[in-house]
Structure formats: C-alpha cells, structure tokens
C-alpha cells in the first residue's frame, strides 16, 4: 500500500473547497498511511501532530468496525 500523495490530497482539497484534509488509509493487513493537506505548512504540520497523537486509537476503532 502506498499513501495518497500530497499533490492528490491538494487536488481533492481544491476541488471540494477544503482548507484542512486528513486522509487516513488502512488495508486489510492493518498497515496504515496518512496524508495531510492544509492551506499552509503550519496547518499541515498541526494536522500531522494531531493524527500522530491519536493514531493508535483511530486504528483500533477502524479494526473493530469491520
């Protein structure tokens, strides 16, 4: 599995008028990939910190939702 690229996330953001976007992907093997997009670098970094802080909780919730 490869993560969604920042360019792809930027395109989604621009097409849909989204200022902050987190794409969190999980495959059936439990591997995860996260891509963040924000209107500027500081926003992207803040989103990255937020997702890294909650990464384990998000993964466990996704796996129990199967």
Overall 3D form? globular
Strand order of the largest sheet: 1-2
Query: How many angstroms separate the termini?
Result: 19 Å
Low-pLDDT ranges: none
Quick one: biggest sheet?
2 strands, antiparallel
User: Mean pLDDT, nearest integer?
Assistant: 83
Order of helices and strands: HEEH
Radius of gyration: 12 Å
* Count of discrete alpha- or pi-helical segments spanning 4 or more residues: 2
Could you give the count of β-strands?
A: 2
Helix content: 40-55%
> Structural class, from helix and strand content?
alpha+beta
Q: Which range does the strand content fall in?
A: 15-25%
Number of separate structural domains: 1
Question: How would you describe what is shown here?
Answer:
This protein is α+β, with helices and mostly antiparallel strands. The chain has one domain. 53% of the residues lie in helices and 21% in strands. The chain contains 2 helices and 2 strands. Strands 1-2 form a two-stranded antiparallel ribbon. Strand 1 and strand 2 form a beta hairpin. The longest helix is centred in the last third of the chain and has 24 residues. The model has no long low-confidence stretch (mean pLDDT 83).
Short description:
With 66 residues, this protein is an alpha+beta fold.
SSE topology:
Layout: H1 6-16, E1 20-26, E2 32-38, H2 41-64
Antiparallel strand pairs: 1-2
What brief labels describe this structure?
21% strand; alpha+beta; 53% helix; 66 residues; 2 helices
